[in-house]
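Explain this one:

_____
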Amino acid sequence: MKDRIRTYFILGSFVLLSFAIKLILIFKYGDQLTLSSDDLNYLKSAVYLLKKNMFVFHNYNEPTVFVMPLYPLFLSIVMKIFGYGTAGIQAIRVLQAVISCVTILMVFLIAKRLFDKKIALFSAFLVSFYFPNIVTAGYLLTETLFTALLYILLYYSLKFSDEPSYGNFAILGVLWAAAVLCRPTVAPYPVLLFLYLLMHKRMKMGKLMKLGAAMSISFIIIMSPWWVRNFMEYGEFIPLTAASGNPMLQGTYVNYVQTPENVVYYKLGENAFETNKIEVEIAKKRIREEFKKDFSGYLKWFTIGKTKFFWQSPFYWREFLNIDRSIVELTHFFLLTGFAGIMLSAFKDFTKYMLPISLIVFFNIIHCIYMAFDRYAFPLMPLMSIFCGYFATSVIRFLKLRRYAS
């Protein structure tokens, strides 16, 4: 009991100190915590949703399927309570600081379930003070909410895999829907989960199908208002978003470099939905043409090249609290030793760790198809913290054994 109290005291200290730093950052910098891009569009979307009861993103004059609705809805609810002005926006940031602390707790619980409490505490420490995690809570972006939802989903997936029941998997369907409604990238998640159940839990296909049905039913119930709304606005079934065209097209340019010789000019559609369809077709055409010109070179860009862009830098585009970018990069590269932890754990017992590992691989692959850069890797850094913690403690234990042996 004393050991348990000590463990949770240390964890609570990490959480509270991390939360305090986030609050200092939020109240010191306020509206300077902006990228002046998607965050402004999310804010505009939330305000318009409150005032006009219409879901927009880029343009006021047309409904959008460019982004999923949960984050703008979250913003609008907070602003409904605290107002549209500075107080309301700061309230959002403070609430996001709380949500980011939920991620710390989830990381601890996941690492404890996968490994042990020492690794769990070390992982929680890394997540608590990895500076992009602190700064991003102040941005009006999906990252903080989505990351928390992703790790809640992952933790309860691991937990309910040990306690499989229709009720538990119906709850997973709700968590899955919530994550998808925040960011659509996670939509294929059940494929990863069911492979884990088949390979690690040796679950029979009949049982798996019934649990999958329970998960799917709750998912469909939660998602159906979004599907109905999209059909009413656009006259066709749009399950997620219609925003893949531009990132897919941008991703066709090697190193994201456009020149007068390779840039594509095209006529925009009557609305963002039609423009997206045009961009998808142009992107597909460019991919076919570029692969014909230089298959091996273009394949390298869509694999190694984009993977490098995905992981090579932290999501820290502006310095705060006098924390130099070089320091943040050092901590980022330290967390990337988690790849060694992944290899070590996979060698030890691949099926036990395959769900978090496959989540990392899946996100990497999906962003290599479209665009890959540090912001999109941000939700995976807590997972990298867990495997970094595992690798670091494994090295320490190995060195101690060698010292005792000598």
Observations:
- The mean pLDDT is 94.
- The chain is about 75% helix and 0% strand.
